[in-house]
Amino acid sequence: MAKKLNIGLVGCGFMGRAHSNAYRRVNNFFDLEYAPVLKAACARDEENLKAFADQWGYESIETDWRRLIERDDIDAIDICTPNNLHKEIAIAAAEAGKMILCEKPLSMNAAEGEEMCQAVEKAGVANTVWYNYRRVPAVTLAKQLIDEGRLGRIFHYRAVFLQDWTIADDVPQGGESNWRLDAAAAGSGVTGDLLAHCIDTALWLNGSIKDVTAMTEIFIKERMHALSGKVEPVNIDDACAFLARFDNGSLATFESTRYARGHKALYTFEINGEHASIQWDLHDLHRLNYFDHGDDSIIRGWRSIHVTDSDMPYMDKWWVPGLQIGYEHTFVHHVADFLDNLAKGQSTSPTFRDALETQYVCDAVLKSAETRQWETVPNA
Amino acid sequence: MAKKLNIGLVGCGFMGRAHSNAYRRVNNFFDLEYAPVLKAACARDEENLKAFADQWGYESIETDWRRLIERDDIDAIDICTPNNLHKEIAIAAAEAGKMILCEKPLSMNAAEGEEMCQAVEKAGVANTVWYNYRRVPAVTLAKQLIDEGRLGRIFHYRAVFLQDWTIADDVPQGGESNWRLDAAAAGSGVTGDLLAHCIDTALWLNGSIKDVTAMTEIFIKERMHALSGKVEPVNIDDACAFLARFDNGSLATFESTRYARGHKALYTFEINGEHASIQWDLHDLHRLNYFDHGDDSIIRGWRSIHVTDSDMPYMDKWWVPGLQIGYEHTFVHHVADFLDNLAKGQSTSPTFRDALETQYVCDAVLKSAETRQWETVPNA
Amino acid sequence: MAKKLNIGLVGCGFMGRAHSNAYRRVNNFFDLEYAPVLKAACARDEENLKAFADQWGYESIETDWRRLIERDDIDAIDICTPNNLHKEIAIAAAEAGKMILCEKPLSMNAAEGEEMCQAVEKAGVANTVWYNYRRVPAVTLAKQLIDEGRLGRIFHYRAVFLQDWTIADDVPQGGESNWRLDAAAAGSGVTGDLLAHCIDTALWLNGSIKDVTAMTEIFIKERMHALSGKVEPVNIDDACAFLARFDNGSLATFESTRYARGHKALYTFEINGEHASIQWDLHDLHRLNYFDHGDDSIIRGWRSIHVTDSDMPYMDKWWVPGLQIGYEHTFVHHVADFLDNLAKGQSTSPTFRDALETQYVCDAVLKSAETRQWETVPNA
Amino acid sequence: MAKKLNIGLVGCGFMGRAHSNAYRRVNNFFDLEYAPVLKAACARDEENLKAFADQWGYESIETDWRRLIERDDIDAIDICTPNNLHKEIAIAAAEAGKMILCEKPLSMNAAEGEEMCQAVEKAGVANTVWYNYRRVPAVTLAKQLIDEGRLGRIFHYRAVFLQDWTIADDVPQGGESNWRLDAAAAGSGVTGDLLAHCIDTALWLNGSIKDVTAMTEIFIKERMHALSGKVEPVNIDDACAFLARFDNGSLATFESTRYARGHKALYTFEINGEHASIQWDLHDLHRLNYFDHGDDSIIRGWRSIHVTDSDMPYMDKWWVPGLQIGYEHTFVHHVADFLDNLAKGQSTSPTFRDALETQYVCDAVLKSAETRQWETVPNA
Question: Considering only Cβ atoms within 10 Å of each terminal Cβ, which end of chain A, N or C, has fewer?
Fold first, then answer.
């Protein structure tokens, strides 16, 4: 019989759904010592909260996250709020001795993140940040291929995260649906929301970033604010691109925007090594493209690996070769790893400390966009 | 509060998992009057059965499907057994007044299917067959585009279902894992297992098939039988291809094999109409390719539609544009439609009667492979 | 200094251009003992002929092919006329001791082709048929991979040639532009025009075809005839599909149509072998897709080989890796091989005799479409 | 009868072949008032030169380009030498009143280019630079779609030119084959060789670039020099990436390298506009990808336009829909346009002055890589 892990979830939006689904499904597919229990959901709007709790089977609700943290029957706090609340909740939870699973990005900036790291490390509580794309099987496979040395010396890294949903100027900023467009709630625009994903993957696959030069742009300068009801200046970055050098000597380009017509959530990365190269694309997340220079020259080409066989990362838990999984499974994998590591007394990457490194890169990027200089990334 | 629908599942293999997952998830994502309850799971091997019931949260178990059918607390029987048991279970369930959700193919042959149809129709019980690929959003979209008349007169239909898992001659036939290779349990090989999917979709999208000419082949003539422990002749078709004419005057080619190296579960179809054409591919099931001759000539080309926006069939229930779903969601959609239709007093296609038409085509195909003649498909 | 080979070209349409271009370019790119000379062009319409001869630099013209054949200064006759003239011209040319390069298909039917073979063989003149797709570098590479045994035992072959240019019912039949729609000039429709290509490649790559079952269709039953000016019945096949068995035990499907909306000249083939599979597509003719089951399982996938490196067939003659060639180069390759073989005293495949085998398959296909029976292909 | 234009070609390497082929073919396919005549080829190595002249049918040879320019029977000088000779030859040719067709990049740097522009403008001679990718039909189509306003306001431009041929450290620098690796002959590495193409296209499609920030890298620091026979420092940039802002407010990323394993000549660009987006890729140069937000939402997706129909730029001159052309045709198109413009008394873009703008961007990029600052691009 699995040991129970009582979850208290804060924030019932898109991410609240994704995490709840992961908790509910993980034990159907993974054999684990622990089983999460949906103990309590927490949000300010009680009506929405009740509907959410009903739909997902939460045993109870709280409208104040401080009350949630005080409860003895909660083992772990899952933070799905807008970014501006991460720090306060996380530090309180750590002080209350709760494990913490925090949505990305870790924090509004590196200074906040530093405080959060100190809190969880002082409290000695398990902590992890939901950079879910590490656990797309094709991305995990990329990590494996790199770790096996199949690429050799790395020359280039390039990543983009392209969307097009804010092109219309009648999209409001702020409020429940669009807090990601409100600097006060989100901290930054595409940098913290989208590039943070690209950076997290890059640090994981290719090591630390040394320095960056960046540019940002706000294409639509004013939008109706959903909270004030007034047209207000837009303060988040609509687009951001930067050049970078990694510690391993490789060069990189990164770019993100919400103004790339035709792309919904096109996160792609490519890594060029001495012996082999890798490409991945979130729009076909079940495939990995791989070029191996070691192939006989007459049959050498980019391979499209359909990452569905049972010897692929995580895929022995799902269906049969050829049958693809989707977006939400990455969260199931994250929970499965978290529970497995818990049983083994291990941390689950990315920890707060791991995720802090991404914040340092984001800070350097945003600073460079202002100074128009190369900026060095501090060590996390 | 949703009304409960008590499910009794027979067969705890691959399909038992897929259906159980669908029942467990459907109410998290769809707003429905009914909620399925995993009341009882049934299989012969008690040890496996218990593990299965534990993993999926079934309230009880039965090792004899007749006992399951007798239980008053069961509303619907879900048949996930090998094909040779479909008829007997379905008829008994119908006579006991149970709703029936039966895995595809409906039956070993059309004669059996005819009896099953008569049983459910006489009993007046809700019935459906799990041809799940109809409910891939991209396939449902194809149906919608055709029904809107966007393709115009149809000239051609072509479909293949290609796999490669039986190429090695040390794959045994029969037993729990490989009953699909045993004619006694499966009825036929790729015709009933794979082409049945292609035919079901084709009948749905393009109407009835008039006649066919076919060929089949057994590439590996003998395999160890898992039950007898002896090398025995293989009696199922390893490969089958046929030509067909539809009632609407269009021509078709169909092919299926388990000897197409490089393809895991490559079900593809293409439809060529007067004005537009459509292509779909199970290996990238979240995309639909569409060619519209009405486009301006200088910007005319095949479009790759990433079927993830909320105006796409079923997709308002899942995530956000760009984030793909996978194989298992097709079963969730089927359950959702079944429950919704139940509330409305409507039948859920494909019904047994709908699925019988596929059996008639399969029978004609297998007969033609023997007679080497064109065979007419009887009306279902 | 290269030896001159004086060419007399009959027929100044599309193929006349393609061949003329090949003759003019071959010595710029290939080092050969022979150099073709554009000695004379021949066609009935003198005005068009003069313009054509001017544009391509022919030294002289003839309006009667019999006069051309009589000329002592002509070494080789190139036949680019509609199909119904192939036999008469070829036999006369052979009797006059001329080499012959004949457009495909060889003849209206196998009986004619048999006569033509006997004529060239009796005369002992060099002869070849322009099945140009054999000499797409990617297709030649496919042949090489098969000959090296990389695919192992072959299970499946499938080919289609899809076009959409005759969907409109106001396309006339007959005349200079549309003789391919006129049975009297073309012999058959897609079977001789398009499937003949597919069959030629298939025989080359996979050996002889044993028997076939086929269906054909005429979607638009009547069209204006360009010669008579009257609406007349259409007698060519608009579409043709057939099943086949090869002598090596593999199964095949073939299909061709001019009613596949969205496809201009989509000739594709796929071969599934025990160890590896191959795909090719005329719309991206510079690529070959290859799946090798021998790859490590975690990096196994379909490879897209960009056939532009200098170790690829013919590609050392052209540009540098990554820079693609196109359709017309296949004719240059054919001429280069012809001239090279001439110097070595070797025949250039496909010879008339090789091409006759395709005629036998076409005849069997067309007969089967009438008899609705499997038809055996006679030995060529 | 076409008027003759006598060509004197300087440099018999890869580009000499590409241009010679273009001159020889253009009148076979295009109806023009002028016909180029291969009057003289010029190079220092007489043996190679003779072989080259023989193969391409040049009427005469010169081993000193000054002699070539002095000849009265030469109308136009085509410069295919290494970059370090462009200026001197071009200025001398202009002073001698010759038309000039100069390979790209125009010059070693903008200062040289400025002198060259002044020379041709003072002399009033026709001049053009062979940025051939403008005349890939798909790229010309992109220009047309932009000029028609189909994209609307432009937000983003991104381009890469990726190769992998210099990864091995035993590739020498300098000499006939590898002068592109020798800074003394080439001026720069990938910036002048590859990014110059990307910049030329970008300026044409998207207008002027305002400022840039760049980084460059030399991955292999020393190579054998083919001329000195000694290992010498490498002074060209192996890789270069830069961020840019266009005058129209759009943001851009550019990157080029010869260390991207798996890419031979992967020049790609993408443009994201308010209403539509465009992608192109040199590895499949006959296709243009296009996304039109104006499509009905349920059939909206990236279209792959197979740019082979006769209403596509230049394509009425070649074959029939579906049959692709290749790399070398871009040069034929350039010559055709040059001859056509000559007849009309018009200049042929890119002129020296147009190409100078690319030099200013290259200079700013290389400077920024040194200063690690944003650099403003001067007006050309």
Answer: N
How many other CB atoms are there within 10 angstroms of residue C149's CB atom?
10
Interface chains of chain B (3 or more CB pairs under 8 Å): A, C, D
For residue A118, give the DSSP letter.
H
Task: For residue C35, give the chain D residue with the closest CA.
Answer: D55
D251 contacts in chain A (CB < 8 Å)? 215, 217, 239, 241, 257
From A21, A306, A318, residue closest to B283, measured CB to CB: A306
Of the candidates B145, B299, B312, which has its C-beta nearest D305's C-beta?
Answer: B299
Length of chain D: 380
Establish whether this prediction's ipTM goes over 0.95: yes
- Test B261 with C251 for CB contact under 8 angstroms: no
Contacts of A266 (CB under 8 A, 6+ apart): A160, A161, A162, A163, A260, A281, A282, A283, B322
Answer yes or no: are the C-beta atoms of A24 and B29 closer than 8 Å: no
Report field, pTM of the whole predicted structure over 0.95: yes
Q: What share of chain C is helix, strand, coil (3-state, %, to 5)?
A: 40, 25, 35
Outline where B162-195 has alpha helix (H): 175-178, 183-186, 190
Q: How far apart are CA A258 and CA A16, in angstroms?
A: 23
Q: How far apart are CA C262 and CA C285, in angstroms?
A: 17
| Residue D124: burial class (beta carbons within 10 Å; 0-12, 13-18, 19+) | exposed
The answer to whether the beta carbons of residues C189 and C238 sit under 8 Å apart is yes
Contacts of C328 in chain D (CB under 8 A): 318-319, 325
Given the candidates 3.40.50.1170, 3.30.360.10, 3.40.120.10, 3.40.50.2000, the CATH classification of the domain at A135-375 is 3.30.360.10
State the Rg of chain A over Cα: 21
Residue D129 contacts residue D355 (beta carbons within 8 Å): yes
CA dist C28 and C21 (Å) reads 12
CATH topology of domain B3-132: Rossmann fold (3.40.50)
Long-range pairs of C220-223 with CB within 8 A, sequence gap ≥ 24: C220/C166, C220/C169, C223/C169, C223/C171, C223/C172, C223/C173, C223/C181
> In this structure, are residues D257 and D190 in contact, taking their beta carbons and an 8 Å threshold?
yes
pLDDT digits (tens, 9 = 90+) for D32-83: 999 999 999 999 999 999 999 999 999 999 999 999 999 999 999 999 999 9
The domain defined by D133-375 carries CATH number 3.40.50.1370: no
The yes-or-no verdict on residue A219 having pLDDT over 90 is: yes
Helix, strand, coil shares, percent, chain B, to 5:
40, 25, 35
Tell me the domain boundaries of chain B. 3-132, 135-375
Report the relative pairing of strands D222-224 and D76-79 from DSSP bridges: unpaired
pLDDT tens for the 380 residues of chain C, in order: 789 999 999 999 999 999 999 999 999 999 999 999 999 999 999 999 999 999 999 999 999 999 999 999 999 999 999 999 999 999 999 999 999 999 999 999 999 999 999 999 999 999 999 999 999 999 999 999 999 999 999 999 999 999 999 999 999 999 888 999 999 999 999 999 999 999 999 999 999 999 999 999 999 999 999 889 999 999 999 999 999 999 999 999 999 999 999 999 999 999 999 999 999 999 999 999 999 999 999 999 999 999 999 999 999 999 999 999 999 999 999 999 999 999 999 999 999 999 999 999 999 999 999 999 999 999 86
Check: CB of residue D156 under 8 Å from CB of residue A260.
yes
Contact A326 B326 (CB under 8 A): yes
Cβ atoms within 10 A of the Cβ of C210, count?
15
- For C133-376, CATH gives 3.30.360.10
- From A219, A272, A372, residue closest to D260, measured CB to CB: A272
- Which of helix, strand or coil describes residue B91? helix
